[in-house]
Amino acid sequence: MGEFLIIGGIGAALLLVLLVVGDVLEGINHFEAFGGELFSSAGLAGFIGALGFGGAIALSLTHSYPVAVGAGVVLGLLVGWLVGWLTRKIKDDESQPALRTASLVGLGGTVISDIPVSGYGEVRLFAGGQPMKINARADHPLAAGTRVWVSDVLSATAVQVQATDALEAGPEELQ
């Protein structure tokens, strides 16, 4: 059973090193031919750790090395796949561009708290598929429920909006 615990300890230590060192070792492995993250360093460390600890548990329950090796391999494959999948999900989430206030210009939204002529109200916008509430000013008073679009960014927490009916009006109606 000691050999399984040593293998599990090596896998756990490798996983700990990967957490500390991070992407430095990810550039070293060349598993791209096998699907990239399918054989990531973290997935491999998870496989080794689960193989060792799963084999040790199975050996203590059955006292059979072939059963312990089989159970360790099956558990290792499951944990390795899970760690690889989680690694891919995390990296995919990180690849989404960060939302910048300047990118709000042109977005449509709805007034959720009345905007007075010389003050601020609030609008709900959908940026990157996520709803966000932000302070807003307008040239004309706008009631809650009015559809608007962002015409300018005033600060990190406030925007200038225009009613969408202003877009549909002809140039002679705006003057």
Write up what this structure looks like.
The chain is of the alpha+beta class. It is built from 6 helices and 5 strands, in the order ααααβββββαα. It has a 5-stranded mixed beta barrel with strand order 1-2-3-5-4. β4 and β5 form a beta hairpin. α1 runs antiparallel to α3. The C terminus is likely disordered.
Key traits:
transmembrane; disordered C terminus; single chain; 175 residues; NA-bd_OB-fold; NfeD family protein; membrane; 5 strands; alpha+beta; transmembrane helix; 6 helices; 5-stranded mixed beta barrel
- The separation of the N and C termini measures 86 Å
Q: Could you tell me the radius of gyration in angstroms?
A: 28 Å
Major β-sheet profile: 5 strands, mixed, barrel
Overall residue-averaged pLDDT value: 80
What is the H/E order? HHHHEEEEEHH
Strand content: 15-25%
By helix and strand content, what is the structural category? alpha+beta
User: Uncertain runs with pLDDT below 50, 5 residues or more?
Assistant: 32-38, 170-175
Instruction: Identify the overall geometry.
Output: rod-shaped
